[in-house]
């Protein structure tokens, strides 16, 4: 059994399709069932048209660094061995933005606009997280 010293996301009825897809090494986002807008994270109501109709769709996993910040302060002991580390906002090729980490790139070398692709990291037996690596 794989456990994590880091905080683990709660799997809820609303976000379960996202985590099931990640376990299969696929990246899913929600799509509004009325106007078709893609969104992440999961929400009950579309912020564009207020419809509650929604479905999950697979996206390419390609994108670029939209923004990032470097964490020098330790806020959780599970990250002690990684400080300083970057929290990166990825703008997916399909539009939605996703907070994640960029693997294999030292924080001082991260640049806005860097092309990235999704990779997957098993956090526990149940939870796999999408991370990103240079494309
Ligand atoms: Zn909508």
Task: Describe the protein's topology.
Layout: H1 16-23, E1 27-32, E2 38-39, E3 54-59, E4 62-71, E5 85-92, E6 97-100, E7 115-122, E8 128-134
Antiparallel strand pairs: 1-2, 1-3, 4-5, 4-7, 5-6, 7-8
Structure description:
There is one protein chain. This protein is mainly β. The chain is 6% helix and 38% strand. The chain contains 1 helix and 8 strands. Strands 6-5-4-7-8 form a 5-stranded antiparallel β-sheet.
- Uncertain runs with pLDDT below 50, 5 residues or more? none
Using the CA coordinates, give the radius of gyration: 15 Å
Overall geometric form: globular
The first-to-last residue Cα distance is: 31 Å
List keywords for this structure.
1 helix, 135 residues, mainly beta, 8 strands, 5-stranded antiparallel β-sheet, 3-stranded antiparallel β-sheet
Concise description?
This protein has one helix at 16-23, and strands at 27-32, 38-39, 54-59, 62-71, 85-92, 97-100, 115-122, 128-134.
């Amino acid at each position: 059994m794989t456990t994590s010293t880091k905080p683990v996301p709660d799997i809820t009825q609303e976000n379960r399709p996202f985590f099931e897809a990640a376990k299969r090494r696929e990246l899913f986002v929600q799509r509004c069932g009325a106007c078709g807008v893609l969104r992440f994270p999961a929400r009950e109501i579309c912020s564009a048209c207020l419809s509650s109709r929604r479905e999950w769709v697979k996206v390419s996993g390609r994108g670029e660094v939209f923004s990032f910040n470097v964490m020098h302060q330790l806020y959780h002991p599970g990250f002690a061995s990684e400080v300083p580390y970057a929290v990166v906002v990825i703008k997916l090729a399909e539009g939605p933005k996703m907070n994640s980490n960029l693997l294999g790139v030292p924080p001082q070398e991260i640049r806005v606009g860097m092309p990235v692709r999704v990779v997957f990291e098993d956090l526990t037996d149940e939870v796999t997280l999408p991370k990103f690596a240079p494309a």
